[in-house]
TrEMBL record:
Keywords: Amino-acid transport, ATP-binding, Cell membrane, Membrane, Nucleotide-binding, Transport. Pfam families: ABC_tran. Gene3D superfamilies: P-loop containing nucleotide triphosphate hydrolases (3.40.50.300). SUPFAM superfamilies: P-loop containing nucleoside triphosphate hydrolases (SSF52540). It comes from Pseudorhodoferax soli. Belongs to the ABC transporter superfamily. This is Amino acid/amide ABC transporter ATP-binding protein 2 (HAAT family). The lineage of its organism: Bacteria, Pseudomonadati, Pseudomonadota, Betaproteobacteria, Burkholderiales. The keyword Transcription does not apply. GO terms for molecular function: ATP binding; ATP hydrolysis activity; branched-chain amino acid transmembrane transporter activity. SMART domains: AAA (SM00382). One of its GO terms (biological process) is L-amino acid transport. It comes from the Bacteria.
Length: 218
């Protein structure tokens, strides 16, 4: 599904990724584990086209993403949940979910919203509420819903449990666990696996932008 081969990525003059490789097989969940600053966010932003590798190759379902412009990657079925949530504060919950659907030209927005509200029914109750009025944990749920909107093939989740109260962390873990066994593949970037060790099929450990350990999750 997603294959990263010896990716090198710099931000300005700083080399962040130094030959990182990983694979996310179809219908699997993979944990990308590393300390803050290890390069996890850089990898996800590179997959989404915000950054460009100077060396290496990133492919999605066999297609080299170098040939796919940034604005077209979500339309491939890739959903991205950034660590900082990235919501538009003045828009409602539903409008924030719909923005990437509109941007990709998805026609069946009603069906997709019905799917999202089926997975996250609590959001249906607050669909008209502006994002700036939500708690940090509620904003995480909306960010996950937005990623699910376009992420029909692959989800990239950056620190989904960071800064979230324990009850909402458990809720997020339940939602992500409920995606197992479907058509989606999921890459979860985290500082540790406290919330998702039971979720992932494999772990990739990143240190200073390179692979440290790749092992099957227990």
């Amino acid at each position: 599904m997603l294959n990263v081969e010896s990716a090198h990525v710099a931000i300005g003059s700083v080399q962040v990724l130094r030959g990182l490789s990983l694979a996310v097989p179809a219908q699997s969940m993979v944990g990308l584990i590393g300390r803050n600053g290890a390069g996890k966010t850089t990898l996800l932003r590179t997959v989404m086209g915000h950054l460009t590798p100077s060396q290496g190759r990133i492919s999605f379902e066999g297609q080299d993403l170098a040939s796919v412009p940034r604005h077209a990657r979500a339309a491939l079925g890739i959903g991205y949940m950034p660590e900082d949530r990235g919501l538009v504060p003045e828009l409602s919950v539903e409008e924030n979910i719909l923005v990437p659907l509109w941007a990709t030209g998805m026609r069946s927005t009603r069906a997709r919203l019905d799917f999202i509200y089926g997975v996250l029914p609590e959001l249906a109750e607050m669909r008209a509420r502006r994002a700036l009025l939500l708690s940090g944990g509620q904003q995480k749920l909306v960010a996950l819903a937005r990623a699910l909107g376009v992420g029909t093939r692959l989800l990239l989740l950056d620190e989904p449990f960071e800064g979230v109260a324990p009850a909402l962390s458990m809720r997020l873990a339940d939602v992500i666990a409920g995606l197992r066994g479907g058509a989606l593949s999921v890459l979860i970037a985290q500082s540790d696996l406290n919330h998702s060790r039971k979720l992932v099929d494999a772990e990739v450990v990143i240190e200073r932008g390179a692979n440290a350990v790749v092992e099957a999750a227990g």
